[in-house]
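Amino Acid Chain and Its Fold in Token Form
===========================================
Structure side: the spatial fold of the chain, written down as a series of whole-number tokens.
Position: the record begins directly beneath this header, with no further notes in between.
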Amino acid sequence: MVSRVIPVDPFDLVIFGGTGDLARRKILPGLYRRFLAGQMTDDSVIIGAARSELDDEGYREMVAKAVIEFTPKDKLDRDGLTRFLAHVRYISVDGKVSGGWEKLKEVVRQGVVKAFYFSVAPSLFGELAEKLHRHGIADAESRIVVEKPFGRDLASARALNRVLADHFAEEQIYRIDHYLGKETVQNLMAVRFANILFEPLWKAEYIDHVQITVAETVGVDGRGAYYDKSGAMRDMVQNHLMQLLCLIAMEPPYHFDPNAVRDEKLKVIRALDAVQPDDIVRGQYLAGNGQGSYVEHSEDPNSRTESYIALKCHVSNWRWKGTPFYLRTGKRLRARTSEIAVVFKEPPHTLFDDATGWRENVLVIRLQPNEGMELSVMIKEPGPGGMRLKQVPLDMAFATALGAEAADVPDAYERLIMDVIRGNQTLFMRGDEVEAAWAWADPIIQGWEARGDKPQGYDPGSSGPEDALMLMHRDGRRWRDIRE
């Protein structure tokens, strides 16, 4: 089976912050791959925009180095790179002054899709939006892509929404969360809503609990001062983990339509109960394995910012009342892995004398590494000696099931940028959704700040603070092992 590649309409994509780290690591290599796949038409143009004084050739040289560095060697096509670079231009623009905007207006064409990627600090979003309209570069059909962080609390998120709304309609604003572009996340919706198998069981009556884990092995060294202003709650839980929770808990939308999907996600966020202080564990990694501690990397020996957080929350609606959702994320943990585990309840009556080997059915959705799904079921252990039970996985690793097709799955940024060009907002956050997430997160953050809670230390290479284990143990449950 060969995946279909459907070209998008001709476009001009302006990347503000076109010389920055995100552009070099993700955006430009992703566009290169879409070009090789035939999804970019020959009359599409990519325009880097930043303060650096470069000409087209200087920028193309930078783009070539970025593509070569961040593209796997087996995916690199030198001839294709040369052809791709012919579609790349550069304009020196400063978001805070007027220089360069008239030149940008001359370069951006009429009659094609116009998209503007704000790969810059949020403090510049309003300036860019205002200047795009003042200089007549953007119009009613233009689209803007906004990177996180989208605010650091409810008040700042609302202010940012108002600034963007002064110049762009909600239908033109694409708030990007790259987790929603992952193949497995979208397959989660397909498994739920395209198969009758799970949907009748997808409720509190049959599901004991849900675990969502995003674990990283890296620390914050090199960007500790920046990270210390946010922490794991703002950086991961309020957006990435919240989006995963919504996709697990949402009701079936009436149609796979952007607003229909986002309406159902918004209902989940609004149904979240307040999280109690005893249901939150925060941590900071200690020094070890030849690496410094979090407080050393943050350059603040008195830092109370968390590099790890685990919490238990509840969705108070008919479908989920009584089923806890456990969320955890952290730096410098045992392995790099992201997964959602839906743990089903045990049967109401055990038929077999030997129940000592009983384990729950678990549906695991792996986001990284080795994207795929696994369903753990109970079978009879082979051999004589009675009915001994054994848990085995029914594994659907995409690389195994789909072969070469899975190896060529687009990166999240590739998929999401192409969705921007298509005008499809399904996998992007709406303004009211962002504000609802902050309305839930703000009291949690304000609570520990008011109490003066200090995060617990945990060893690098571990699963996090000991109290995070107790968060589950006291409920008679346990976290899944963190492993690749």
User: Anything to note?
Assistant: The chain is about 35% helix and 20% strand. The chain has two domains: 11-147, 180-410+430-473. The chain has a mean pLDDT of 91.
